[in-house]
Amino acid sequence: MKRLLVVAAGCEALTGLGLVVDPLLVVQLLLGARPSGAGLAMSRVAGIALLGLGLACWPDRDVIASRAPLRAMLVYNVLATLYLLFLGVGGESVGPLLWPAGGAHAVLTIWCFAVILRPAPPAGQTA
Fold first, then answer.
1. CA–CA distance, 106 with 127 (Å, rounded to integer)
2. What's the pLDDT tens digit per position in 85-117?
3. Model confidence over 11-37: pLDDT tens digits?
4. What is the DSSP code (8-state) at residue 119?
5. How far apart are CA 43 and CA 102, in angstroms?
6. What is the DSSP letter of 125?
């Protein structure tokens, strides 16, 4: 579980940081469009939220004690996969990184499901 959370939380935090620092580039690569006005502001807010999600889900020493970060990443990745698939199939908002991002979220969704369905190790053991 720890490796999964490091990968997922790290990717989301980096994406969030990218949206905060250069939302024009990130949105252009994902959606093939350039945000302006309120879209630019909302891109930065989304970046702040992703950065917060990544930091909140970053594993600590007691990662096995609570599955809350794993559940949060599972819900996020399921919804992100579905939405990116919806955007890609619609074909209106497709940038060069939309399908790779959708694929990455799908892989993380499957990984989260696999880990969450696995029984938790007894207290005191690490995964």
1. 23
2. 998 898 777 888 889 999 999 999 998 898 888
3. 999 999 999 999 999 999 998 989 899
4. P
5. 18
6. -
Q: How many CB atoms lie within 10 A of CB 82?
A: 14
Claim: this prediction has a pTM higher than 0.90: no
Query: Structure tokens of 86?
Result: 């919806």
Residue keyed to tokens 């399921």: 78
| Cα dist from 3 to 43, 75, 121, 127, whole Å | 28, 18, 15, 9
**AA letter at 59:** P
Contact (Cβ atoms closer than 8 angstroms) between residue 89 and residue 83:
no
Distance CA 103, CA 46 (A): 20
Length of the chain in residues, anyone? Answer: 127
